[in-house]
Amino acid sequence: MLTIQTRRCLGLALMFGAFTLPAWAQTVKVDGPWVQATVAGQKATAAFMKLTADAPVRLTGGKTPVAPVVEIHEMVMDGDVMKMRAIEGGLPLEAGKTVELKPGGYHVMLIDLPKAVEVGQNVPLTLTFTDAQGKTFEVAVEAPVRPLKRGHEKKSGHGM
Amino acid sequence: MTKYYLHRRFALALLPLALLLSACEKVSPPAAFHATEIREASFGRELRLPDTEGRVRTLADFRGEVVGVYFGFLQCPDVCPTALSRAVEVKQLLGEEGKRFRIIFVTVDPERDTPEVVRAYLDAFDPSFVGLVGTPEEVARTAEEFRVYYRKVPTGSSYTMDHTATTFVYNANGKLRLAVPHALSAEAFAADVRRLLAETAPAEPGR
Ligand SMILES: [Cu+2]
After folding, report:
1. Contact B124 A85 (CB under 8 A)
2. Fewest C-beta atoms under 10 Å: which of A141, A146, B10, B67?
């Protein structure tokens, strides 16, 4: 009885912990991370996800084996002109407020890819956060790769 | 019966008004397109660039099709895949008529976007999409003709491109008809394309 329950708890913990386990020790929860696939020769792509911090922090950078350069970017439409910029000082996160990095807004830019990132791959991504005291900590996730051609999803927050 | 006659008389009485209204319509037609309609374009009159196979393509190559010209670049992680995914969706929404709808992608980053990579990239969306890769000078001239804005912006270790994300849509006669903004939905875009296809429907017997 006891064993079964323990096992069950373990199973649940593993299930829920798949993406968030490393975050438990830290203060930012990362949900549903994904990386956009590339074709060979395409030198950059982006990672998207939902971030929820326990305390006010900033997403200031990251590391991944698939790209030597990782930057935190914002996409803005100026009229019908698209502009992409690195966010100065990182992306601020308020305590308890989920911020979604998604097409049409923020993304983690993966630059100078030596080879294509393909569907079926899980991209290890270590995000760097900086707290109010200027102390940094890391959260590691695995982001599955989604096809370049996006399916018919509700394009919420797409400026409509 | 009486009712019917009444209706008819009523309708007849309204006829002059209807004629008047339709006359007015010719002067200022209702905004039936979702995108911005272009009547007499003083821009986007010419397009002449090599495709990913090195053949020089012009708008005349695509007569009989509704064509959307989009300027973008491959390192664009956001609006370009969104715009091209929307175009694929438009094609699907059009069903059988989707065969007469095509996207022409013009890279504004010819330094990095080689013809081979542009071809592979477009194939990930729809192999029928045409990619045009000019020299930096040719691209500049084309963008000017389309009044498209693009600019290289340094970011950290490399650079990104600011660019107009409008899709310029031509009817099957090669006339520039619509400026489709980035934010327009696939459904609205598809409805507009359907209208353009009807406007230049091939003459079929019994139609
Ligand atoms: Cu970016």
Report:
1. no
2. B10
